[in-house]
């Protein structure tokens, strides 16, 4: 029998000792860990929540979503080309060898499929519709060897087919290399490289020849695998590859509506100098608005009057295309006005800012003000009391505290004229000669009053000790020695013209990188005609966002643009076979501003010819082609840039970017004493030394200093440096001047002759 005692048992509290459990080596489950921590959250977990770190399942789900999104974008991009209701695949056929006939290749591709429907446009473009692929293709052939024609075709092409030869001595000849270099600099779309004439090589050598062609192509296109075009089935393989390959993005092409002309017609106005250009084609890129401006490469910017739409003249399936577009299925061409330009919201052709010559006007000083300023700049003669026997040189170093109090009162008297001052000086000199002084007899014996001029040391006394013949001989030797080496930006100070006049537009900078320079200072008049963005990046984002929401003709529609105000001489000068390309401009793209471009020279260094600043060049930037006279500079991290053609990219649109030209004046030490030295041959008169006195000096051995005073009348100067100079050192002074590009923009650019024609002409002459 058990009897309960009623005694309470001890229950462990929160402060009970917890001994370490035995490490049995088994894995702890998540449930056991969760029950052990009893809801406590570690600091690491809290930090992860703050950083929004995802768990493993969440990261896996996010990766799946991103992958699916990219797949959908790729599929959407593929389906946006080549379909029944979309624009055809646009293929530019470019030959990289003068021995290849691209038009013969086109005839070969036409025979690829017996069921294919082949049509031609008014501009000579070939349309191939392949029912088995449910895709359609447009092939455009620029004039062989025509650089501008090839560049214009690739401005709108989705794919470029490069033709190379296996039977000729060169896979890519010199003219082909020039064309390929320019195309890659402009922006390369999706590529296909096809080799021809492989069947003309003996069977045992075909594999080796194909490998050699592949090797030559890999130098330019590292990831491209060549295909052959010798058999009938090769043409169908080519079309299948174009329709299934990934489309390479070209930013400047995809962000703007653009069109390749299928039909072009010019209708002159009553005056005859201008007219309306009717361009028909497929809209590509973005939606096209009739109120926007259009740009034709090499011609300029124009406005549209209205926009027409018509049935697709090159359908894949005529009945299906009509049903999807909502049009009737009859064979007649249906043309209707889609939109008409509204003058209230249409973009203006104004490209330059209005010039106001009276803006910022200020009054010119009068003759009296100029005379007063000249008198204030003249050296003032002052009276000093100095001990007897003091020379003029020593008197120049006497401090002003030794001046007589009466003299100070006389100097401060506003009513005293210059004539009274001269009379007072004469009286004081006469009194000193008689031994009479207001300060007493003792002071009269010890001091005398003399008249000195504030101008430093005695120049005549210094010149008497100079050997001018030695000066000229030494200067001649130094000039001859410097011709053996190159000193960047270093020039000789002219003897005939004062340096302060020759370099009056230059200034000194203590630090080329950090010294301030007002970008709005002393701007040329042409700068008032250009536009400047308060924030270019912000404006760019807003314009690109608004362009996606533009209403008008959608991509894939076949429309006709009526472009008015086109000069007739441009249409008359157009070459046959040159593709006509039309780009629609975004807002503000017609306005003039200043472009900063980073360039890199092409070709080997030994073949590069020097190009001077302000020499006229032809620029291909995006869809534009124009002439201009640029200035070149070294690209540095600072806000100012010094003097130094080629492929590159646009750095910014900023008129405030300062391009400074540097000149270096050099001098040589004549006498050296510790940290001070007498420098000569930098200037040749004391006025120039005084003018450039605030500018910092440097030496080729790294010393820095400044000008202390002028010595003599031949440009010698006393300088102080931060350390001991060496006799072989050279003293330099850097001067900078801002340079501006000339207003030489010219949008009308004539095409150069064909590169292949030049080669064929040379062969005939040989």
Task: Give the helix level as a range of percent.
Answer: 25-40%
* Intertermini distance: 134 Å
Give the oligomeric state of the chains in this entry, treating copies of one chain as homo and distinct chains as hetero: single chain
Biggest sheet, open or closed, and with what strands and sense? 8 strands, antiparallel
Radius of gyration: 42 Å
Family: Belongs to the TRAFAC class translation factor GTPase superfamily. Bms1-like GTPase family. TSR1 subfamily.
Function: Required during maturation of the 40S ribosomal subunit in the nucleolus.
GO molecular function, one term: GTPase activity
Protein name: Pre-rRNA-processing protein TSR1 homolog
Describe the structure in brief:
One of its GO terms (cellular component) is preribosome, small subunit precursor. It comes from Timema bartmani. This protein has 22 helices and 28 strands.
Structure, described:
With 766 residues, the chain is of the alpha+beta class. The protein has a domain at 76-244: Rossmann fold, CATH 3.40.50.300. The strands form 6 sheets. Strands 8, 9, 10, 11, 12, 13, 16 and 17 form an 8-stranded antiparallel beta sheet that branches. A hairpin with a 3-residue loop joins strand 11 and strand 12 (300-310). Helix 5 (147-154) runs parallel beside helix 6 (174-186). The longest helix has 24 residues, at 56-79. It is extended and about 120 Å long. The protein starts with 29 loop residues before the first helix and ends with a helix. Residues 319-332, 401-444 and 758-766 have low confidence and may be disordered. Residues 19-30 have a biased composition (Basic residues).
């Amino acid at each position: 029998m058990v009897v309960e005692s009623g005694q309470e048992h001890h229950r462990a509290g929160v402060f009970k000792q917890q001994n370490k459990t035995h490490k049995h080596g088994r894995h702890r489950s998540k449930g056991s860990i969760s029950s052990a921590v009893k809801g406590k959250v570690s600091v690491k977990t809290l930090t992860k929540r703050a950083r929004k770190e995802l768990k493993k399942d969440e990261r896996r789900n996010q990766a799946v979503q991103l992958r699916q999104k990219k797949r959908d974008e790729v599929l959407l991009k593929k389906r946006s080309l080549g379909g029944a209701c979309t624009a055809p695949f646009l293929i530019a056929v470019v030959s990289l060898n003068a021995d290849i006939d691209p038009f013969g290749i086109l005839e070969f591709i036409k025979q690829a499929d017996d069921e294919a429907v082949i049509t031609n446009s008014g501009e000579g473009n070939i349309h191939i519709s392949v029912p088995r692929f449910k895709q359609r293709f447009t092939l455009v052939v620029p004039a062989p060897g025509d650089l501008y024609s090839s560049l214009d075709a690739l401005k709108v092409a989705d794919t470029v087919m490069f033709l190379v030869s296996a039977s000729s001595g060169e896979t890519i000849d010199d003219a082909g290399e020039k064309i390929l270099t320019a195309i890659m600099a402009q922006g390369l779309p999706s590529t296909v490289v096809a080799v021809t004439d492989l069947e003309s090589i003996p069977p045992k050598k075909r594999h080796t020849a194909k490998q050699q062609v592949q090797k030559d192509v890999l130098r330019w296109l590292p990831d491209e695998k060549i295909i052959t075009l010798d058999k009938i089935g090769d043409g169908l393989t080519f079309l299948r590859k174009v329709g299934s390959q990934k489309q390479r993005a070209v930013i400047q092409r995809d962000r703007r509506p653009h069109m390749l002309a299928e039909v072009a017609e010019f209708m002159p106005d009553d005056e005859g100098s201008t007219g309306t250009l009717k361009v028909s084609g497929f809209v590509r890129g973005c939606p096209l608005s009739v109120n926007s401006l259009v740009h034709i490469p090499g011609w300029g910017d124009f406005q549209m009057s209205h926009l027409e739409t018509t049935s697709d003249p090159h359908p894949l399936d005529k009945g299906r295309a009509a049903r999807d577009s909502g049009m009737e299925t009859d064979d007649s061409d249906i043309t209707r006005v889609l939109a008409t330009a509204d003058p209230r919201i249409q973009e203006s052709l104004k490209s330059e800012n209005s010039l106001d010559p009276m803006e910022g006007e200020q009054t010119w000083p009068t003759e009296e003000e100029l005379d007063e300023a000249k008198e204030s700049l003249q050296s003032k003669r002052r009276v000093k009391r100095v001990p007897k026997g003091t020379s003029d040189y020593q008197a120049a170093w006497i401090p002003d505290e030794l001046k007589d109090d009466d003299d100070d009162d006389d100097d401060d008297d506003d009513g005293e004229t210059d004539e009274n001052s001269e009379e007072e000086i004469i009286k004081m000199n006469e009194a000193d000669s008689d031994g009479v002084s207001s300060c007493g007899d003792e002071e009269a014996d010890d001091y005398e009053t003399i008249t000195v001029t504030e101008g430093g040391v005695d120049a005549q006394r210094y010149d008497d000790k100079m050997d001018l013949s030695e000066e000229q001989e030494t200067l001649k030797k130094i000039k001859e020695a410097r011709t053996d080496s190159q000193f960047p930006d270093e020039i000789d100070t002219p003897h005939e013209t004062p340096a302060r006049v020759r370099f009056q537009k230059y200034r000194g900078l203590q630090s080329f990188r950090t010294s301030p320079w007002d970008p709005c200072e002393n701007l040329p008049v042409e700068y008032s005609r250009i536009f400047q963005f308060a924030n270019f990046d912000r404006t760019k984002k807003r314009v690109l966002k608004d362009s996606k929401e533009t209403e008008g003709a959608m991509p894939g529609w076949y429309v006709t643009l009526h472009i008015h105000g086109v000069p007739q001489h441009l249409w008359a000068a157009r070459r046959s076979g040159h593709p006509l390309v039309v780009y629609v401009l975004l807002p503000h793209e017609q306005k003039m501003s200043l472009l900063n471009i980073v360039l890199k020279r092409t070709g080997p260094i030994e073949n590069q010819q020097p190009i001077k600043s302000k020499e006229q060049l032809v620029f291909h930037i995006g869809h534009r082609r124009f002439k201009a006279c640029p200035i070149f500079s070294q690209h540095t991290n600072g806000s100012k840039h010094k003097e130094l053609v080629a492929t590159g990219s646009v750095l910014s649109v900023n008129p405030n970017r300062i391009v400074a030209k540097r000149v270096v004046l050099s001098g040589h030490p004549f006498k050296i004493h510790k940290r001070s030295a007498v420098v000569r041959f930098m200037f040749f008169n004391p006025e120039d030394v005084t003018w450039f006195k605030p500018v910092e000096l440097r030496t080729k051995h790294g010393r820095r200093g400044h000008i202390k005073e002028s010595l003599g009348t031949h440009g010698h100067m006393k300088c102080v440096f931060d350390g001991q100079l060496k006799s072989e050192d050279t003293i330099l002074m850097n001067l900078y001047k801002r340079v501006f590009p000339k207003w030489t923009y010219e949008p009308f650019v004539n095409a150069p002759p064909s590169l292949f024609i030049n080669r064929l002409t040379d062969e005939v002459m040989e």
